[in-house]
Amino acid sequence: MAAGAKRYFSDEEIKQLKQRETHLEQAIGLCAGKYGTAGVNGRKPDYGWKRSKDRAMALRHCMAYCDGDEVAAEILLQFAMRRAEVLVANGWPCISKVASALLDREKLTGNDITGILGNAAR
Predict the structure, then answer these.
(1) Domain locations in the chain as residue ranges
(2) Whole-model pTM above 0.90?
(3) Are 81 and 34 in contact (CB under 8 A)?
(4) How many C-beta atoms lie closer than 10 Å to residue 76's C-beta?
(5) By the 8 A CB rule, do 30 and 61 touch?
(6) Nearest CA to 115 among 91, 94, 84?
(7) Angle in degrees, CA 59, 21, 76, rounded to 5
(8) DSSP state letter for 42
């Protein structure tokens, strides 16, 4: 948060803004799995997303962000899904390299990932 924010917001308001931002980031992260899986599966339909635990958790974070407003939460979930789709598409070259290595090795360290991605990780 910008240093000047303290001029406009109290410490409690800043804390609440950070919590809301965390809810949005979590929702986007939970949605990203849908698009990563679709990429690995060659963009086949992702059966079961609407009943998945990831979607339920993403919606829960959106509900918290929207103070329990179900209509707003569904709209925010659509935003989170689109944002996740764009992030996965933009990062696909790196994501696919790490995914392939995980399929081969099942476990990766930070050094493994750095080696796999090389300069792309910076």
Answers:
(1) 12-90
(2) no
(3) yes
(4) 21
(5) yes
(6) 94
(7) 35
(8) T
**CA angle in degrees (0–180, nearest 5) for 106-40-118:** 60
Beta carbons of 63 and 23 less than 8 angstroms apart: no
How far is residue 90's CA from residue 87's CA, in Å, rounded to a whole number?
5
DSSP secondary structure code for residue 89 in this structure: H
Whose structure tokens read 């764009």?
86
- pLDDT of the chain along its 122 residues, tens only? 556 666 788 889 989 999 999 999 999 999 998 888 888 777 665 678 889 999 999 999 999 999 999 999 999 999 999 999 999 999 999 998 998 898 899 899 999 999 999 866 55
Q: DSSP label at 107? A: -
Cα of 29 vs its chain's centroid, Å: 2
Gap between the terminal Cα atoms of the chain: 23
Amino acid letter at 109? Answer: T
Residue 80, classified by CB atoms within 10 Å of its CB into exposed (0-12), middle (13-18) or buried (19+), is: buried
